[in-house]
Amino acid sequence: MSKDRTDLVGLLRAEAEALMEEMGQPAYRGRQVFQWVQARRAVDVDAMTSLSRNLRALLASRAMVGRPEVVRAQRALDATRKYLFKLVDGEEIESVLIPDEGRLTACISTQVGCPLACRFCLTGLMGLRRNLAAGEVVGQVLALQDRLEAGERISNLVLMGMGEPLLNFPQVERALRILSDEYGAHFSPRRITLSTAGHVPGIQKLAASDLGVNLAVSLSATTDAVRDRIMPINRRWPIAELLKACRAYPLPTRRRLTFEYVMLDEVNDSGENAKRLVGLLRGIRCKINLIPFNATPDLPDRGSPRERVEAFQRILHDAGLTATIRESRGREISAACGMLKTELLKTDRDRDRDSKTDSDMR
Ligand code: SAH
Question: Which of 98, 291, 296, 341, when mutated, tests ligand 1's pocket best, judged by the most ligand atoms within 8 Å of its CB?
């Protein structure tokens, strides 16, 4: 795919219209192109058969339909599916489809890797390789839709895959506008949740925008001392500042913020922590999502025993807070929270190890 051609998947409807007008066409042609790409999921310009052959040739000389290539698909026993995508420059990302009681949630990535290095997250071990373009964020959803089984429909989108969405705000914002456009996939913003590790300026930007998506904040600690250690972003925006931004986040009636809390054995899971959390969240319309830690040999922590997770939940309940325990989905295919990373990491490390062995033997 040539670099100088515009990726139609990353264009807002108004931009598709402008592109067609530049080519001497009426604006409605641009809307048709947008519909072809986003609603009918055309995989190339040639499939847009409501455009004349000549117009398709002209369009194809300036634009293309960029779709991430699926290089691996895995399915867990609980029907969670994970897809590994290869992007045009060879970088790889993962997305997950999670069926649950009549819902089908697509969990999509916003960056290749992530710079935030949360201690409990595998993606963090990769470091940031690059931001995704809007077309690559939207492209994941289109590609997942292509692979649905008969009768399935993606009902919810969560930006909880690889990366910190608020560190890629312009492209994420653009992707969300495309995905919620009535002529495209038409996801209601109420069915979209953006999850952040606590990037305060990003939360403020999101608050000031009219995107209207749900906000989830990964809190996972109740003191700065602990949060500094497990989520380095806290050193820049400590708990008080983060919660101040959360308090200022405009919520439509009947909407609530979500606070995610990864339960780490003897790190953040005591009754004291639960009580402190109650104090911290006082006055914020919210629910709490307790996430059992998905342990792997590459990460230092252990998960909290189930009874401690439940005791923690009980304290929150008794204080009048809504707290749910997120059931781990797709763990055996490493599709669960915090387990998304592409093999690049492993290969790099294996290569390191191999080369060390080589030199040791010399
Ligand atoms: N950067 C964003 C979105 C990606 S992480 C954020 O931090 O919110 C999505 C969720 O997975 C976050 O709530 C995060 O705390 C959680 N998570 C990360 N690693 C995990 C692990 N190993 N086990 C369980 N949850 C994890």
Answer: 291
Centre of ligand 1 from the C-alpha of residue 108, in Å: 13
**pLDDT under 70 in the chain at which residues?**
1-3, 341-362
| Residue-level pLDDT at 343 | 56
R_g (Cα) of the chain, nearest Å: 22
Q: Residue length, the chain? A: 362
The catalytic site residues sit at: 94, 337
The structure tokens listed for 119 are 């201690």
Distance, in Å, from the CA atom of 337 to the CA atom of 231, rounded to the nearest integer, reads: 15
Other C-beta atoms lying within 10 Å of the C-beta of residue 215: 23
C-alpha 218 – ligand 1 centre gap (Å): 7
| Contacts (Cβ under 8 Å, ≥6 apart) of 189 | 176, 180, 211, 212, 213, 214
Cβ 94 under 6 angstroms from ligand 1: no
Angle (nearest 5°) at CA 88 between 334 and 4: 155
Residue-level pLDDT at 337 = 78
The single residue listed with the structure tokens 């779709």 is: 67
**279 Cα–ligand 1 center, Å:** 23
Q: Which residue has the tokens 């919520």?
A: 251
Residue 17 CA to ligand 1 center (angstroms) comes to 38
| Sequence-ordered strand ranges (E) for the chain | 6-7, 63-64, 69-75, 81-86, 92-100, 103-107, 111-113, 128-131, 156-159, 192-196, 214-218, 257-263, 286-292, 322-325
- 240 is written with which tokens? 């008080």
Give nearest CA residue, ligand 1 atom 25: 337
Nearest residue to 67 (alpha-carbon basis) of 20, 7, 113, 116? 7
Confidence (pLDDT) at 3: 58
Q: Which of 94, 195, 214 is the pocket-test mutation for ligand 1 (most atoms within 8 Å of CB)?
A: 195
Q: What is the residue with the minimal CA distance to atom 18 of ligand 1?
A: 338
- Nearest-CA neighbor of 70 among 147, 164, 148, 126? 147
